[in-house]
Design a protein that fits this description.
CATH topology: Rossmann fold
Largest sheet: 7 strands, mixed
Low-confidence stretches: none
Bound molecules: S-adenosylmethionine
Helix content: 25-40%
Strand order of the largest sheet: 3-2-1-4-5-7-6
Order of helices and strands: HHEHEHEEHEHHEE
Number of domains: 1
Number of strands: 7
Radius of gyration: 16 Å
CATH class: Alpha Beta
CATH superfamily: Vaccinia Virus protein VP39
Strand content: 25-35%
């Protein structure tokens, strides 16, 4: 989907498309890290960026949908936390190398070549000791999970993400279950790729 398709998707939903609460794997992965400079690539409406700012991180949030970024600004203002917002295409965005203690990529689904470029830029953006967290719908979700994109070409696997992270220390790489509420009050599991990696200290 291009930025105007994402704009249309966001604009056609009166409230938030995603929740105002952070993703559970983002919370798990970041809790315990010392807050510093964080970069949220494809930040959407800012649920994770705003939560990070609330934890004391200095957050730059990037998304190519102006409608999503406007909602992110509203969410941050409503929670009274500072977040620096940028409207940009993450396949072309080049963060300053070695300048972030945390880079987050949450539910960004791109063809493999584009994702490899984003992972390379994310990896280079890390300071020594900095962490990269990648979360997204897993390929196995097509057959064993629920929701998410149905095109296998844009789904993640832990192995494919790890392949793009040469030089980092992999702390977690797995397909994890995320309970999703159903209309009858139960839950069904979605399957997500979760990868957490650290740039070794120089
Ligand atoms: C499923 S949403 C996830 C948003 C957010 N990371 C979260 O977890 O709530 C995917 C987001 O990726 C953004 N996106 C997709 N391709 C992008 C690109 N090439 N550059 C910047 N943003 C992109 C979309 O605008 C959308 O906001």
């Amino acid at each position: 989907m291009d930025s105007s398709a994402w704009d249309t998707r966001y604009a056609s939903t009166p409230g938030l498309v995603w929740s105002a609460e952070p993703n559970r794997f983002v919370v798990e992965s970041v809790t315990g890290l010392t807050p510093g400079a964080a970069l949220d690539l494809a930040a959407g409406e800012g649920r994770n960026a705003v939560w990070l700012a609330e934890q004391g991180w200095r957050v730059t949030a990037v998304d190519f949908s102006p409608v999503a970024v406007a909602r992110g600004r509203e969410l941050a203002a409503g929670r009274d936390v500072p977040v620096e917002w940028r409207v940009a295409d993450v396949t072309a965005y080049r963060p300053v190398p070695g300048s972030y203690d945390l880079v987050l990529i949450s539910y960004l689904h791109l063809p493999a070549d584009d994702l490899a470029g984003v992972l390379a830029a994310a990896r280079q953006a890390l300071r020594p000791g900095g962490s990269l967290v990648v979360v997204g719908h897993d390929l196995a979700n097509l057959t064993g999970g629920t929701g998410g994109p149905q095109d296998p070409a844009v789904l993640l696997t832990p192995e494919a993400v790890v392949d793009g992270l040469a030089g980092l220390h992999i702390r977690r790489a797995e397909t994890a279950r995320r309970p999703v509420p159903t209309t009858d009050g139960g839950t069904v599991d979605a399957l997500d790729t979760v990868v957490v990696a650290t740039r070794p200290a120089d």
